[in-house]
């Protein structure tokens, strides 16, 4: 069960209502640190997800590879197999997600 969070900073209930009316489903992400950072995101549509995921995965693979055959990263099967590990590799801070 995920702990309910109240942001230290962030939008007011009124601002959230306006944002929800305009954008639909919203998510609050709180990044622990000094200072604590709070962001609100809308849900992406399939087109945005597809385009950004492909670009992100390819960019991460090419720019972080230090050993191996870079030309093999053009193979979608290989890239798809590698991509899920980028989140763990790049984990820097603890963050939490709250569905608004």
Briefly say what this structure is.
This protein has helices at 13-23, 46-64, 76-82, 86-89; strands spanning 26-31, 37-42, 95-99.
Count of discrete domains: 1
Low-confidence stretches: none
Helix content: 40-55%
Largest sheet: 3 strands, antiparallel
Report, as a whole number of angstroms, the end-to-end distance. Answer: 16 Å
- H and E string: HEEHHHE
Characterize the overall form.
elongated
**What number is the mean pLDDT?**
84
What is the multimeric organization of the chains shown?
single chain
Placed side by side, the strands forming the largest sheet appear as 2-1-3
Question: Can you count the beta strands?
Answer: 3
- Report the structural category: alpha+beta
Radius of gyration: 17 Å
The percentage of residues in β strands lies in 15-25%
Number of helices: 4
């Amino acid at each position: 069960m995920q702990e309910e969070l109240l942001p230290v900073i962030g939008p007011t209930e009124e601002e959230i209502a306006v944002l929800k009316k305009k954008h639909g489903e919203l998510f609050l992400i709180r990044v622990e640190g000094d200072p604590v950072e709070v962001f609100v995101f809308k849900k992406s549509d399939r087109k945005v997800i597809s385009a950004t995921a492909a670009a992100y995965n390819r960019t991460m693979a090419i720019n972080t590879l230090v050993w191996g055959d870079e030309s093999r990263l053009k193979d979608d099967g290989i890239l798809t197999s590698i991509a899920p590990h980028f989140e763990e590799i790049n984990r820097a801070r603890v963050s939490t997600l709250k569905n608004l």
